[in-house]
């Protein structure tokens, strides 16, 4: 795959973010810094670096499946690349030993948090632009085109859930570390993470299908199965969070929906994995 200049910018942004995540894993292990929970923890630069890096690198592939447009491409690349300074500010606060989020202890801390908000707002703008772009300018076969459309919708929903998490944090009167908690035990960060990484779930499926010998209708059925299953899983997770229930505190209906959702996701992957494996054996 030959990369355009704007894809290269996005790729290197992803590489930097992933390197940051790995670096901070090393720091955490080397320093024996303890828990990965709480408002001041190495989990944050690890999590944001790894998640942002995976997202940026995956979007390079997504851009390869839509018709090139230099203006839109550079807009998406430069806006999504703002993951880098946002994550750098999170790491800065952790190295200073202070919370990165909802920290208004000093004017500097307030400025850092405000800048983080500005950067992530720019990222969301780029994601929204790319989401619209994949609907109007695909250059992939039907199943792949729909897989990346669903993937981008999941990613955009993830950004919306991130906004809900921030709103909950501002409304919270408890400790800083409780920003993601709703009610007694609801965890907004769980559906937030699920939605964001629905991008990888659908893109990996699309990549496997592209290497398979499945006919177009079978590929589309696999995409639909995975998309519906993941949407049900995400919806159940959101209901748990906003209902104030812990992620695994599932009632019988929620257990049934979760089982059904996971089954549908696997139902989409199994034929594509089998077809891709048989193709690799033949080649």
Description:
The protein is mainly α. Helix content is about 75%, strand content about 0%. The chain contains 10 helices and 2 strands; from the N terminus they run H-H-H-H-H-H-E-E-H-H-H-H. It has a two-stranded antiparallel ribbon with strand order 1-2. Helix 3 packs antiparallel against helix 5 (about 105-135), helix 5 runs antiparallel to helix 6 and helix 6 (about 140-170) runs antiparallel to helix 8 (about 200-210). The chain is globular, with a radius of gyration of 20 Å. The two termini are about 20 Å apart.
Strand content: under 5%
Low-confidence stretches: 279-283
Helix content: over 70%
Residue-averaged pLDDT: 90
Rg over alpha carbons? 20 Å
Bulk shape: globular
Question: How many β-strand stretches?
Answer: 2
Reading the helices and strands in chain order gives HHHHHHEEHHHH
**What would you call the structural class?**
mainly alpha
Strand order of the largest sheet: 1-2
Q: Helical element count?
A: 10
Largest sheet: 2 strands, antiparallel
Distance between the termini: 20 Å
């Amino acid at each position: 795959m030959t990369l355009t200049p704007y894809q290269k910018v996005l790729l290197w942004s992803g590489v930097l973010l992933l390197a940051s995540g790995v670096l901070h894993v090393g720091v955490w292990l080397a320093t024996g810094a303890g828990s990965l929970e709480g408002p001041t923890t190495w989990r944050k630069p690890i999590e944001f670096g790894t998640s942002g890096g995976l997202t940026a690198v995956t979007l390079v592939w997504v851009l390869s499946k839509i018709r090139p447009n230099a203006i839109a491409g550079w807009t998406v690349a430069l806006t999504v690349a703002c993951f880098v300074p946002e994550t750098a500010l999170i790491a800065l606060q952790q190295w200073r030993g202070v919370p990165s989020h909802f920290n208004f202890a000093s004017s500097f801390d307030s400025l850092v948090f405000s800048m983080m908000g500005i950067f992530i707002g720019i990222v969301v703008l780029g994601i929204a632009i790319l989401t619209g772009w994949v609907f109007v300018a695909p250059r992939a076969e039907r199943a792949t085109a729909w897989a990346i459309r669903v993937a981008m919708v999941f990613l955009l929903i993830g950004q919306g859930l991130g906004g809900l998490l921030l709103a909950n944090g501002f409304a919270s009167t408890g400790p800083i570390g409780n920003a993601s908690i709703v009610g007694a035990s609801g965890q907004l960060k769980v559906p937030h993470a699920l939605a964001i990484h629905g991008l990888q779930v659908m893109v990996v499926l699309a990549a496997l299908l592209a290497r398979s010998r499945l006919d177009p209708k079978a590929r589309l059925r696999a995409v639909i199965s995975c998309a519906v299953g993941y949407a049900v899983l995400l919806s159940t997770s959101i209901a748990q969070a906003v209902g104030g229930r812990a992620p695994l505190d599932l009632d019988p209906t929620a257990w049934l929906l979760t089982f059904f959702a996971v089954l549908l996701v696997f139902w989409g992957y199994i034929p594509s994995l089998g077809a891709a494996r048989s193709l690799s054996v033949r080649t």
